[in-house]
């Protein structure tokens, strides 16, 4: 899987974003990026959470700190239902590598509000739903592994929450995470069904780890196997990871949008 060449993301990503209508109230929010007057309207706990997470964001350069703060404040001011949720900082850090603040805010709005179905609201209802979908997919495609994990007391929310809310950006190598974002943005017209990309990547990881997980004797060994897998992935070359992403792509193509919607209902 080639994906979008890195040097072209600065112009390809904005084109992909324009495939869906711009939210009606976004221009006002973009104005907020230029100043801090709207910050006074936010709950101080939200501002504090944003500032704390900015300091913990991976691969954030010093010149991205102020833009990240402005965009997250602008998003929280615009969308009071979501406000701010952990994981948004990691997504935004990647967006700011290839976009200016206005484009990054638009991309964040589309990802959080359109493509990822209610992953980041307080109830995380969309996240719970897609964890249940992941559970159903594993049960249908590998009942032995599903039964084993269930008997060990593990559920998909324990295993998959971090993967989904960060779009795998904190788990896979950065160049691999970028290709996950490529696949999401390439499906903007699918709206909430685009999150089948994340479901496909997640199920692919379970398939790749199958033998290790079946050998695990308790929940701790399962989590250790998953963490060790990601540590190994971080050291792999682009060519090796492209083979993994090709496998993910094949799984994603089998997860047709209508199938995902049926599982969610």
TrEMBL record:
InterPro entries recorded: Rab-GAP-TBC_dom, Rab-GAP_TBC_sf, Rab_GAP_TBC_domain
Pfam families noted in UniProt: RabGAP-TBC (PF00566)
Record GO terms (molecular function): GTPase activator activity; small GTPase binding
Domain Rab-GAP TBC as annotated: residue spans: 3-188
UniProt xrefs under SUPFAM superfamilies: Ypt/Rab-GAP domain of gyp1p
Protein name (record): Rab-GAP TBC domain-containing protein
């Amino acid at each position: 899987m080639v994906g979008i060449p890195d040097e072209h993301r600065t112009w390809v990503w904005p084109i992909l974003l324009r495939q869906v209508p711009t939210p009606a109230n976004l221009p006002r929010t973009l104005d907020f990026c230029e100043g801090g007057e709207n910050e006074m309207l936010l709950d101080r706990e939200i501002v504090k959470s944003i500032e704390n997470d900015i300091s913990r964001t991976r691969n954030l350069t010093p010149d991205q700190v102020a833009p990240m703060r402005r965009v997250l404040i602008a998003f929280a001011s615009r969308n009071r239902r979501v406000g701010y949720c952990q994981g948004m900082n990691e997504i935004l850090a990647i967006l700011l590598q290839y976009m200016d603040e206005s484009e990054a805010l638009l991309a964040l709005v589309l990802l959080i509000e359109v493509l990822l179905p209610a992953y980041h609201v307080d109830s995380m209802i969309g996240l719970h739903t897609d964890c249940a979908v992941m559970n159903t997919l594993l049960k249908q495609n590998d009942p032995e592994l599903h039964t084993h994990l269930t008997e060990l007391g593990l559920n998909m929310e324990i295993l998959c929450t971090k993967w989904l809310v960060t779009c795998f950006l904190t788990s896979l190598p950065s160049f691999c995470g970028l290709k996950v974002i490529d696949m999401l943005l390439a499906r903007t017209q699918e709206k909430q069904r685009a999150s089948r990309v994340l479901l496909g990547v997640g199920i692919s990881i379970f398939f790749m780890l199958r033998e290790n997980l079946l050998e695990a004797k308790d929940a701790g060994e399962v989590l250790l196997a998953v963490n060790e897998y990601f540590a190994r992935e971080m050291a792999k070359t682009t060519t090796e990871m492209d083979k993994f992403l090709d496998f993910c792509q094949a799984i994603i193509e089998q997860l047709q949008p209508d199938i995902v919607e049926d599982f969610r209902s």
